[in-house]
Amino acid sequence: MAEWLSSLRLRLWALLRRRQLDQDLQDEVAFHLAMREDQLRRSGAINAGAGARRRFGSVTRIGEELREAWAFAPRMSSLVQDLRYAARTLRRSRGFAFVVVLTLGLGIGANTALFSIINAALIRPLGYADADRLVSVHEGFSQRNIDRFPFSALDFDDLQRYQQSFERVAAYRNVPFELSSGGNPERIEAAKVSAELFRTLGIGPAVGRSFSTAEDRPGVNVAILSWGLWQRRYTADPSIIGQAIQLDRQPYTVIGIMPATFVFPRRGPQVNGQPADLWVPIAFTERERAERASMHTNSVIARLKDGVSLQEARAELSVLAGRIAENYPPLLRNAGFSPRLSAQPIREDISGQFEAPLLMLLAAVALVLLVACANVANLVLSRAAGRRREFAVRTALGARQSRLVQLLLCEASLLSVAGGVTGITVAYWAVKAVPPVITRKIPGLQDVAIDFRVLAFTGVLCLATAVIFALLPLAALDRRSPGDSLRDETSRTTLASKKLRTQRGFVVSTVGLAFVLLVGAGLFIRSFAALMSTDIGFRPAQVVTASMTLPRTFYTTATSVRTFHASLYESLVALPGVRSVALATDLPLTTYELRAFTPEAASIPEGAQPTTHLTWVHGPYFDTLGMTLRRGRFFVDGEHVQNRSVVIINEKLADLFWPGRDPVGKRLKWGIAASGAPWLTIVGVVGNVADGPIGAEPGIHAYEPFRQLPELFLDGAVNQFGRDVKAAVLAQGEPRALAAAIRQEISTLDRELAIQNIELMDQQVSDAVAPQRFSTLLVCAFAAVALFLASVGLYGLLAFTITQRTREIAVRLALGAERRAVMRMVVAQGAQLVAIGLTVGLIVSLGLTRFVASLLYRTNQYDLVTFLTVPAVLTAAALIACVLPAWRAARVEPLTALRAE
Amino acid sequence: MGEDPSRPADLLQGTLELLILRTLATGEKHGYEIAEWIHVASAEALSVEEGALYPALHRLELRGLLSAEWDVSANNRRAKYYRLTAGGRKRLKDTTASWRRTSAAINRVLQGT
Question: How high is the ipTM of this complex?
Answer without folding.
Answer: 0.84
